[in-house]
Amino acid sequence: MDRRSLLAIGAGAVAGPLIAATSHAAGPHCRLLRPGDPGYAAEVAPFDLAQIPAPGLVVAAETATDVRYAVRLASRRGAPIAVLATGHQPSVPIGPDAILVSTRALRGVTVDARRRVARVEAGVRWQEVVDRAAAYGLAPLNGSSGTVGVVGYTLGGGLSPTLGRRFGYAADHVRAIDVVTADGCLTTVTPDADPGLFFGLRGGKSNFGLVTAIEFALFPVTGFYGGALYYDGAHARTVLHAYRKWIRTVPDAMSSSVALQNLPDAGDVPAPLRGRPTVAVRIAWTGSPAEGVALVRPLRAIAPPVLDAVSDQPYTAFGAIHADPVTPVPAVERTALLGELTADTVDALLATAGPGTGSPIAVTEIRHLGGALACPPRHPNAVAQRDAAFTLFMVGMAGPDQAAAVRSAEAAVIDRLRPWCTGGLFPNFLSIADTDPDVVRRAYPPEVYRRLRLLKRRVDPGNLFRLNHNIPPA
Ligand SMILES: Cc1cc2nc3c(=O)[nH]c(=O)nc-3n(C[C@H](O)[C@H](O)[C@H](O)COP(=O)(O)OP(=O)(O)OC[C@H]3O[C@@H](n4cnc5c(N)ncnc54)[C@H](O)[C@@H]3O)c2cc1C
Fold this sequence. Notes:
Layout: H1 3-8, H2 17-20, E1 31-33, H3 40-44, E2 57-60, H4 64-77, E3 81-84, E4 99-102, E5 109-112, E6 117-121, H5 126-134, H6 150-155, H7 164-167, E7 174-180, E8 186-189, H8 195-204, E9 210-217, E10 223-232, H9 236-246, E11 254-262, E12 277-285, H10 289-300, E13 307-308, E14 311-314, H11 319-322, E15 331-338, H12 343-353, E16 363-368, E17 390-397, H13 400-417, H14 437-440, H15 446-459
Parallel strand pairs: 2-4, 3-4
Antiparallel strand pairs: 1-2, 5-6, 6-9, 7-8, 7-9, 10-12, 10-13, 10-14, 11-12, 11-16, 15-17, 16-17
Helix pairs in contact: 8-15, 9-12, 12-13
The structure holds flavin-adenine dinucleotide.
Flavin-adenine dinucleotide is lined by residues 83-89, 91, 103, 122, 143-145, 148-149, 151-153, 155-159, 161, 205-206, 210-211, 324, 428, 468.
């Protein structure tokens, strides 16, 4: 967009006299896109198609300077500012009054093998970091999907289904964060440089600024014994009860989850899982393969799996464990944290989401927490629901016609499981259903929430960063 076009934004919903007064020299050197511009639709396209952002202006940032420009512009205009990396986690709608910073072009990755540290810019996705670190025999605390953004994931805690129980949350191992705060300043935040902001950013997502790069620890892990054991839905009761007993026997280094699945009869779903209820037990063991085989033996004995995809694998194959969708889908999600998984919890889950209930929920996952995830980190952060023993996460792949049915099925599961819910929520699993600030506050214990609201008052008193799961200023 040239200067004349930039000035023309002044007539639009986002820009006003302040933009007209902005010289091109002071402006960004990246693309600025308005609705209808070539490239606009591609730049706002999210992974989760349930909500398509429709901002009045997109700043397709290529440098931290572009991000500063966008934040200053939004601040002067009083326009809310949003950030989009991959679009895996929609929250509130992003409308024509908003400026959206797309971080897709911020793609720098550096691995320092000697220090076992990676530095990653805001548009980078997990698979790239895992691949780059693997060349040095190292691994990050990545999530289940290689297409998820590193920065968004880490700012929401970062619950690794491969290494979480062994090393803790990804947020616990962040060394430094480059962030543009609401005043338009770019600061490097560390445990020593602004510890208050360092605390809040790790768990508070985009409430305190727009992160341009992040530095975090890598671990000497080159492979895992794991994958998923899939059973026919007819065995769901046996499998879930066996799983809840099995997890009591496993070491901390064993990460796992169990999921009731109703996958579509579609080409990219493996044939034995298509169009029928199945149960998946997902496993990641990073000790010796021989120990892994022994630990998994009781699971293989529960019932004959319809698909046994557990084996010794290079760490770069982590995405096969959960086999999340890799192409954009409209998702309807709900979540909760559970304090325990008793026989009654399992029966309640089966009664609402199990085979034979006609549930439209595609995946109902219970993920095992504990281990290092329950330990306080060396530098405290806002990932603070560490007493929870499990996450519950449900997702239905639902277009507008089916969304209401999925929403009500998920609500019914939460209602039925309420006796075992802690009342807390995990920031990364918050969905469109969780945007009310009174719901968001449940992602933090009361004392942490108070601290976050005070931090918000200090760094973003006008709540410029409000197009998210918002923490309003105190
Ligand atoms: C298939 C799938 C698998 C997942 N697996 C896991 C998992 O195993 N463990 C886990 O913990 N989570 C998991 N998640 C949740 C995921 O971590 C969150 O959805 C995360 O927010 C995605 O970040 P993103 O940048 O990819 O998405 P976006 O939708 O682009 O961003 C989501 C939010 O992250 C914040 N954010 C992103 N970039 C920045 C930035 N530069 N500065 C400040 N804030 C920013 C903003 O609040 C933004 O609204 C999964 C999600 C999906 C869809």
